[in-house]
Amino acid sequence: MKTHLNAWPLVMGVILILAPVSPTRSQDKPFDGVPRFRTYIAADYIYQDFPDDFDGFSFYSDGINLYTVPKLAAGNGFRIGLGFRDQRFGAEASYQMSTHATEWLGITGEAIHHEVGADARGYLFPGGPVQPFGKIGLLLHFLVLKEGAIDLETDSLDTVREMYGGGIGLRLAGGLRLNFTGSVAMRSEAEFRVGRFRTLAGRTINTLSASNWVFSAGLVYTFAR
């Protein structure tokens, strides 16, 4: 079963719901630089792949169940973030989710990847409408397989969701922010994530790479002071 998550309606919905309508006219002025310490919200569309450690034929077993290591297709999803910034530096906390089609020895299914992270950001040309930026941060992540285990006694596919736990990872990224007004901006970035999946269904494995690329683009709404 392959599913595709259309994240754009959710991204736009988050912006429209959370971004308040200001009674002042200052929000509508053209961009004229970033004041100090302003809070913002962001919603992004994301696209990410997974490393070859998920090969589509390996497995783990505890003698009762066989836990699959499926091949994961690249997938898409969304990220929502809350942050603050001044002229050159900022910080952001975020949550992201993506869906991925899976296959293990001809058995197809679906996986959902969740990630919570926090990062620090640095901006170039903060007084201009186009601002390159870089970021470094930490993340917690896990992967839920909807069809991830086979009962060795009955030889049947277990529909109970099995989870790969990720522990702490590192994210490095570079991107570009385009400011339309003092409140509304668009951003895009390429991120490389470094980490491992350390547990499977509560048991320590510490062998599967979770390092991969994530590409994203979305909207940023900055609140008035």
Could you explain how this protein is built, in words?
- By secondary structure, the chain is mainly beta.
- The chain has one domain: Porin.
- The protein is 5% helix and 62% strand.
- The strands form 2 sheets. The chain has an 8-stranded antiparallel barrel. A 4-stranded antiparallel β-sheet has the order 2-3-9-10, with no helix packed on it.
- The protein is elongated, with a radius of gyration of 20 Å.
- The termini are far apart.
- 32% of the residues are buried.
- About 5% of the residues have low confidence.
List the helices and strands and how they pair.
Elements: H1 8-18, E1 38-48, E2 58-61, E3 65-69, E4 71-72, E5 75-85, E6 89-104, E7 107-123, E8 130-145, E9 149-151, E10 156-158, E11 162-179, E12 184-194, E13 196-200, E14 203-209, E15 212-222
Antiparallel strand pairs: 1-5, 1-15, 2-3, 3-9, 4-6, 5-6, 6-7, 7-8, 8-11, 9-10, 11-12, 11-13, 12-15, 13-14
